[in-house]
Amino acid sequence: MGDWHAKVGSKPITGITGNFGLGDRNEAGDRLLEFCQTNSLFITNTCFQQPNRRRYTWTSPNGQYKNQIDYILCSQRWGSSLQLAKTRPGADCGSDHELLIAKFQMKLKTTSKTARPARYNLSNIPRKYAVEVKNSFDGLDLIDREPEELWSKVRDIIKDEANKNIPNNKTPKKAKWLTADTLKIAEERRNAKGSEDKE
């Protein structure tokens, strides 16, 4: 964005200016176009058909002369996000330049969901789990150990043995159009198929 004193004119240049520039190009306009071409930029406020009063960016103090000499430049890769660019002639900004705005619709990447911690089926904890945890605890060296270090070791033992010995509590997502009976039949089929695969 800037007060370039450049006039790019009304002749469109593919990828850099649209069909709605104003006036004739000047030397500063040539330099601006070269800058845009080098840096893969386009001039947003030449891309939208607006009344002239929404395209002029500067008015002389006596109101006799009007020009489009201020621009918002944007990377060409964001071109599809641009929705509008125009001046706000009525805005009181204490300048002979008009307030120039651009509106973008950004498409942000969705963040990947973090994996939820395992949920164990605690209603039926196998005896093997208790035995393995006890054996691991019996083997712990408790002499000259820091409390934090001991806590980490205990936590790791419990987690490791739970992963090995306690089944996960699988709660299928319920589809609104499926009844409880249908879900039950589907679960029975899955279990039957699982037992067939093991045989």
From TrEMBL:
Top-level taxon: Eukaryota
Record PANTHER family: BUCENTAUR RELATED, CRANIOFACIAL DEVELOPMENT PROTEIN 2
Name of protein: Endonuclease/exonuclease/phosphatase domain-containing protein
Taxonomic source organism: Rotaria magnacalcarata
